Amino acid sequence: MKFVIQRVTSALVEVEGETIGAIDKGFLVLVGVTDTDTKEIADKMIHKLVGLRIFDDAEGKTNLSLDQVGGALLLVSQFTLYANCKKGFRPSFIEAGNPQFAEEMYEYIISECKKFVPEVQCGSFGADMKVSLLNDGPFTIILDSREL
Length: 148
Known about the structure:
148 residues, alpha/beta, D-tyrosyl-trna(Tyr) Deacylase, Chain: A, 6-stranded mixed β-sheet, two-stranded antiparallel sheet, 8 strands
């Protein structure tokens, strides 16, 4: 499982010109799932995500977590995080999770995040989405379950 976490001052996701999810201060999280992922792996990733202390405190040090700043989450599924570019110029996506399994894991992640974060918005699994964000910093972190 991979999460690309971007600290944002605002972010939104649109499908067919309609905004389906939007947040102000918080994290835009691109979520990639592979077939070897489990709910236990998702739980570890979520625990790390909601506990990250990457917001500035009064002294300007990255010392505050999402809940300490009243931040929100915007979760967007993105199978392309598992692109394999080793051969040629056309990426292979065979490492990306089976769509049915990946959607189940994505929905699980959304439901679990709602237990920790009051405002959780999301994209639409499998849709052609347009994502806009104002990255704060910029501050971007990649969490890979293989490294936890």
